[in-house]
């Protein structure tokens, strides 16, 4: 019955820091839509952003920065993103390591975003 995930919501403490990480380092897009709503965009998906203390309704029961654990599949190589992370002084917590993605084996690295969410960056082993 479910086809795909359309979007998810992250509650963030600092919009500028969030945009710098996701847009400048990970090359996601940014858009403002509706009544001042904001989102990170990539592929056919988006991440809506709520500012801590100014969350839009309805919202998650416990909407707090740093509570997410997300995996993004890269269109490029792990080496390329590792270089971008190093240039931005973002430490790699772990990896490259073998994991299992939604459709098969992946190789991943792990970092934290400005709100300390765990971010997995991966490529499929095909």
TrEMBL record:
Concerning SUPFAM superfamilies, the annotation shows:
Glyoxalase/Bleomycin resistance protein/Dihydroxybiphenyl dioxygenase
Per UniProt, residues of the VOC domain are 4-124
Q: Which Gene3D superfamilies match?
A: 2,3-Dihydroxybiphenyl 1,2-Dioxygenase, domain 1 (3.10.180.10)
Q: Which InterPro entries match?
A: Glyas_Bleomycin-R_OHBP_Dase, Glyas_Fos-R_dOase_dom, GlyoxalaseI/FosfomycinResist, VOC_core
Q: Quote any Pfam family the record assigns.
A: Glyoxalase
- Protein name stated in the entry: VOC family protein
């Amino acid at each position: 019955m479910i086809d795909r995930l359309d979007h998810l919501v992250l509650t963030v403490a600092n919009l500028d820091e969030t945009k710098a990480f996701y847009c400048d380092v990970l090359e996601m897009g940014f858009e403002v839509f509706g009544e001042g709503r904001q989102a990170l965009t990539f592929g056919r998906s988006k991440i809506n952003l709520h500012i801590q203390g100014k969350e839009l309704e309805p919202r998650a029961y416990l909407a707090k920065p740093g509570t997410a654990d997300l995996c993004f599949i890269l269109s490029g190589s792990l080496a390329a993103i590792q270089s971008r992370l190093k240039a931005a002084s973002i430490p790699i917590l772990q990896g490259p390591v073998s994991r299992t993605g939604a459709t098969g084996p992946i190789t991943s690295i792990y970092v934290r975003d400005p709100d300390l969410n765990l971010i997995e960056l991966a490529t499929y082993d095909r």
